[in-house]
Structures are given as C-alpha cells and as structure tokens.
Design goal:
It is built from 5 helices and 4 strands, in the order H-H-H-E-E-H-E-H-E. It has 156 residues and is an alpha+beta fold. It has 2 domains: 68 residues, no CATH class; 80 residues, 2-Layer Sandwich (Gyrase A, domain 2). A hairpin with a 4-residue loop joins strand 1 and strand 2.
C-alpha cells in the first residue's frame, strides 16, 4: 500500500514538473511562431539577398580602395619577420616592442659566434620593412661575451 502511494506521489510530482516546464516555455514558443509568420526566412534569389550581395560588393570595393591608406603591418608580424631572419647560433632571450612613429623593437639575446651578430644585422638590413637596424659597437666587437641587443625601427 505504501509503495503504491509512493509511486502515485512521484508520478504527480513529475507531472507537475512537466506542466510547469511547458507553461514556462509557452511564451517563448508563441513569440517565435509570431516572429516567423511576420518575417519568413529569406530565400536565395529574393530581393533581400540581392540587397545583401550588393552591400557586400560595395564593402569589398571600399576595403580595396582604402587598403593602401591603412597600415597593415603589426608588431607581431615584424617580430616574426625578424625572428625568421635569425641565423643559426643566435638565440633571442627578450623582445621589447614600442609603438609609435616610427615604432621600435628591441631584440636581446646571445650568439655562439660574434660574426653571427653581424650576419643577423645584415639580414635585417636587407628586409625593407625595417627603416633602421642598429647594433651597439661593443656587441659587434664581442666585448659582452656574445650577448647583444638589436634595435629595429619600423612603422607599426
């Protein structure tokens, strides 16, 4: 007898939870169904999608026309280029970037051989993204036990 009462009470609690959930979701269902009736989904080839295509084409034309005026180089791409020009035996320990006109990037590290620093400087000078590449004379002469710092100037 108690088992039957327990099953009936559990069923009533579950039924109440189901009715409560349905009532809680009913307003959302009504709003969505009314919205779908007033705004049917756009079909391909309709005037709305044609207007969208026209707007996209106009935006792409503006981007193409204005792209020379926008600086597309960022500090991260310049740092990646500088690290890509690094010869074997050169390790970069610290990078500092300061934005401005022109911005500066300072690469600090160590080299196994002193001539690797000069090779690295030459490789960075060959890259036209950097307007100035400077290495202290003491670093090029090898007075700092292979440690060096290179200052790069560029617009970013």
């Amino acid at each position: 007898m108690y088992r039957t009462r327990f099953i009936i009470a559990g069923a009533l609690v579950l039924l109440f939870a189901a009715v409560f959930s349905a009532l809680a979701l009913a307003p959302s269902y009504v709003v969505l169904s009314l919205q779908n009736e007033t705004n049917p989904p756009a079909q391909s080839g309709t005037a709305a999608s044609q207007d969208d295509r026209t707007a996209i084409a106009h935006t792409q034309a503006l981007i193409t026309a204005l792209s020379p005026l926008i600086a597309t180089t960022s500090a991260s791409t310049l740092i990646a280029q500088a690290l890509g020009a690094r010869p074997a035996g050169v390790a970069i320990d610290h990078i500092t970037a300061t934005a401005g006109t022109p911005g500066t990037i300072i690469l600090s590290g160590s080299a196994a051989q002193i001539d690797a620093i000069s090779t690295y400087q030459s490789a960075l000078l060959a890259d036209k993204q950097f307007s100035n590449v400077s290495v202290p004379v003491g670093d090029l002469a090898g007075t700092a036990d292979g440690t060096f710092s290179i200052t790069l100037s560029a617009n970013f």
